[in-house]
């Protein structure tokens, strides 16, 4: 990437995270390194009739710590998460919006599902009390583009602004498309990532009916176990991961502190099945290839992959096959981990949160573990950094995200030179 001009090189200058293992980037990253487990019995609703009763539920989150109390009441929890994470990222970036051209700052923050809690509560009001009891804020609170809209209003960002929805690949696609937007010259700065708040009765009912979720309710801490032979489904989490990214030219001009570089992005579709990944990983291989080409890197230059790693029987096996299919002999030399073993699966926020993790790993020279990996699946025979973090000076990391609909996204981060 060094041969690209500075207006084409994209750097990360701010990180923000709201997760089940930490309500800011530092506590999140420290939680990853210590193998902290964020999975517990859910108490956000009555789970007695549900086959899955566990999740990565965020507790002790106060939206009014960053958002005006009136605005907090009007917005869904997924917007509150995005707002808090963006506040952290923007503060870290040191951006002075008063000295920036507002039309050169954009926001792409996505949500896989949007305001599910708002929708459920207002459906109940409609059925029990009639239409007059439905909130006038129902529609703006539930639509998934509102996180981007609220952030633009907060910062006066008048550049490109919308929400990408691609299920569990949403956050990664939002970041990747933000990279492309800056490279196309449509913006200098993008606030981007994903947010999700779907630990609700209706969400659980749907996923439980699909038999996609873990039913290891008696042992929540060991329920999310990617690549382990005993895995029995994903564990839902909630939260947000937001990045501030900008052209290197812009970052240099304002003397910004640069965390790392986003070198590559690739997107693809399996065109195979609405929920199951391609058994040979063809779509993911294509996305990773595109990311490598975008970054002008060879496959053997990647040192670490943050896997999608959902702890479902199909995903972990097929994702391993995809990594082997692309990387060949180098696959055995890669360090791979699934941070979902600690946070659970944050759906549309996963790609954002895992991008924050990749950026911090480059910055700190440490690799997060895959916890709960006690009995490896014979089909999952790569180095998943089991159970304990590692010190490793990294130059290139990759983050993969897969979504229902067969939608794939791959991001490549590299140490800034």
Automatic annotation (TrEMBL):
It comes from the Bacteria. Signal peptide: none annotated. GO terms for cellular component: plasma membrane. Keywords: Acyltransferase, Cell inner membrane, Cell membrane, Fatty acid biosynthesis, Fatty acid metabolism, Lipid biosynthesis, Lipid metabolism, Membrane, Nodulation, Transferase, Transmembrane, Transmembrane helix. Its main location: membrane. It is found in: Cell inner membrane. Residues 7-415 form the Ketosynthase family 3 (KS3) domain. GO terms for molecular function: 3-oxoacyl-[acyl-carrier-protein] synthase activity. It is an enzyme of class 2 (transferase). Proposed to synthesize NOD factor fatty acyl chain. Involved in the synthesis of a highly unsaturated fatty acid moiety, which forms part of a lipo-oligosaccharide that is responsible for host specificity. This is 3-oxoacyl-[acyl-carrier-protein] synthase 2.
